[in-house]
Amino acid sequence: MLMSDYELMMFDLAKVDHMLWVTKIDNCLSEFCPEGGNYSTLSDYTICKFGVWYYGKGMKLFGNLSSFTAIDELHKKLHALGGDIISASGNGEKERAQRLFEELTILSHQLVNLLEVAKHDASSSLKSNPP
Predict the structure, then answer these.
(1) What is this structure's pTM?
(2) CA-based nearest residue to 51, from 24, 25, 78
(3) How many folded domains does the chain comprise?
(4) What SS3 class is residue 38?
(5) For 2, which DSSP code?
(6) Mind listing the pLDDT tens digit for each residue in 34-80?
(7) Crossing angle of helices 3-29/71-90, nearest 10°?
């Protein structure tokens, strides 16, 4: 497998990891938080699988692409919202947590769309400037 194929596959993996993260947040709404009460692993944008790649190797390879850097603020916002959902749910504010989760779902779709655009731009970039 070529390095460029691997790096482009990371965008697809990021989408899957993100969907799993959303599912974990959703599970916390129903009082089953799979992180065993360690909510920082769900609310900290720097330690999720995508964040580790994005702020590390991903940024080194694709940090020059505006579509890639546009992901940053949305990624941070999603994790902050995830933390708010977990907090609201833990405090018994179920309706608030559900409203926040609906907002998270909208932002989640935006992130998936941004990942698709960034993957397309990264593919074009790798074709013209192989690593």
Answers:
(1) 0.85
(2) 78
(3) 1
(4) coil
(5) -
(6) 554 556 667 788 888 889 989 998 899 899 999 999 999 999 999 99
(7) 20
